[in-house]
Each structure stands twice: as C-alpha cells, then as structure tokens.
Amino acid sequence: MRNIAFRLVFCWVCLLACAAEAKPLRVVSLDMCADQYALALLPSDHILSLSPRARHQDSFYRARVGAIPMRRPTLEALLALKPDALVRTWGGDARLIKQAQAHGIKIIQINDVSTFSEAGPEVEKVAAQLGVAHAGAGEAQSMAAALARVSVPQHPRNVLYYTPSGFSAGASTWVGQIIDATGHRLVASQPYFYYLSPEMFLNEKADVYALGFYDDAYAMRRAPGRHPLVRGRIERAAHVTIPSPMLACSAWYVAFGLPELAERIS
After folding, report:
1. pLDDT higher than 60, residue 165
2. Residue 3 domain-assigned?
3. For residue 79, what are the domain limits?
4. Per the structure, how many domains does the chain have?
5. Which of 83, 107, 223, 263 would bridge with 28, disulfide CB 3.0–4.6 Å?
6. Residue 170 CB burial class (10 angstroms; 0-12, 13-18, ≥19)
7. Who's near 42: CB < 8 A, 6+ residues apart?
8. Is the pLDDT of residue 14 over 90?
C-alpha cells in the first residue's frame, strides 16, 4: 500500500513538472544580456519585449529579434503588456522592480557568471524558471560540446588582451576564462582589468594580441588604442579580434566561438 501511494505521488509530481514545462512564461527582458537568454530559450511569441540594445552588434542573438518589440521599460508599459515575468541581469532600477513585484510580476534574476563551469548551470536554472528546462539542458550540452571541440595547441602562445581604451585583462576576468579555454597563455600583470598605457603596452612581450572591441568604430575613436606606435606594433604582429558578443556578456554561448578563436590564435 505504501509503495502504491509513493508511485501515485511520484506520478503526480511528474505530471506537474510536465505541465509546467509545457507552458513557458511570457516575459519582458530588461537588458541586453537578459535578451540573450530570452532569445535562446523561449519561443518568440512568449517574448513580449526586449531591451533597446537587442539588435546591437554586441548582442549574440541579434539575428533572432525579428519583429519582437524593443522598449525602454516603464511601469505603464509593463502593466499594458501583462508579462508573467521580467528577465534581468542588471537592467531596471530598484523602484521599477519593486513596483513590478507589487503587481504580481515575477522577477527572474540572472547571475553574473565568471567561469564556463558556472555558465552551464546558470542557463539551466534560468530555463527552468522560464518553464523550458529542456531548452536549458540543450544549451548547456551544446556549450560542453563546443568546449570539447577546442583543439589543445601543440605550442601554446602568449596572448595579450587590449582594448581601444587602453585596458587589459587578467586571469580572474571573463577574458581570462576565454583565453584559458583556448589552451593558450594570457599575458597579464594583474588578475583583473587594468589600464595599460602605450608605454607599458610597448614593453610587454606577447606572441599574439587579442583585441577587444576593435571592430567598434565608436570605441576606436578613443586613445590610447589608436596611438600610432600601438597600432603599428599590433599590425606588425600576430593579432586577432575577439568578437564583441563574446565579451559583452559572460554566458554559455560564448563557448560556441571558442574552437574558431583557438585556431586563429594558433
């Protein structure tokens, strides 16, 4: 009798899980990084609105935006759209979040991840909250497969990261995780982001320069990244530009570009 009762309870839990899985939430995304989760995990008709930067060149899934509206969120707009949930990393101020909660709107908070080992569980967690756990599991598996496709270099190279604004990055940054995943070595004098003046840049020894946001015409207006001596050194040496969507948000899909990046560095 006890076994029968246990089986009935187990079946009921499974039915509830299936029902929840079959009904994805209708959401509004509040910032570009949250946009990526919504676009990757949800059917487009369940995304009521995206952030104004959803089609920006830094947005990994910008090609999926299609006809989905992009709006700067206000309480009036949210109440008119009647979402089940707001999806956010950093978007939306505290007052808006509190007002939305007061009207019964769920808040799905996406955590900032600093490693690929954190990125897989995070996309699975968010997907489960959205009611599409199967989609999250699929994305995590795709990330693991991409990481496994990265060829271990026979001769790892020393890589220096540099941006137009003159900043470099250390091993404890998302950039550090990207370079480490390619099997190459990051050249850095500090663990986090730090300023590297043209003079210091010219004194550093690197086999390859990995450039961040050098494909951004606006960013390239800034010194010291456009200093003639800096540009000359980079142009004469081996260099790669890391696609900006791999840098703008730390998330599972960044792994999809790693096999190609690793080959380009090698």
Report:
1. yes
2. no
3. 24-110
4. 2
5. 83
6. middle
7. 24, 25, 27, 130, 132, 135
8. no
User: How would residue 44 be classed by pLDDT, with cut points 50, 70 and 90?
Assistant: very high
Phi, psi of 28 (to 5 degrees): -120, 130
In whole angstroms, what is the distance from residue 1 CA to residue 221 CA?
Answer: 75
Q: What is the CATH number of the domain that holds 256?
A: 3.40.50.1980
pLDDT band at 8 (very low <50, low <70, confident <90, very high): very low
Q: What is the mean pLDDT of the chain?
A: 90
Long-range CB contact pairs, 6-13, < 8 A, 24+: none
What is the band of 227 on the pLDDT scale with cuts at 50, 70, 90?
confident
Strands (DSSP E) along the chain, which ranges? 27-29, 47-49, 85-88, 106-109, 158-162, 167-168, 185-186, 194-195, 208-212, 238-242
Q: What is 211-246 written as a DSSP string?
A: EESTT-TTGGGSTTTT-HHHHHHHHHSEEEEEPHHH
Instruction: Say if 257 falls within a structural domain.
Output: yes
Residue 224 belongs to a domain: yes
261 and 164 within one domain: yes
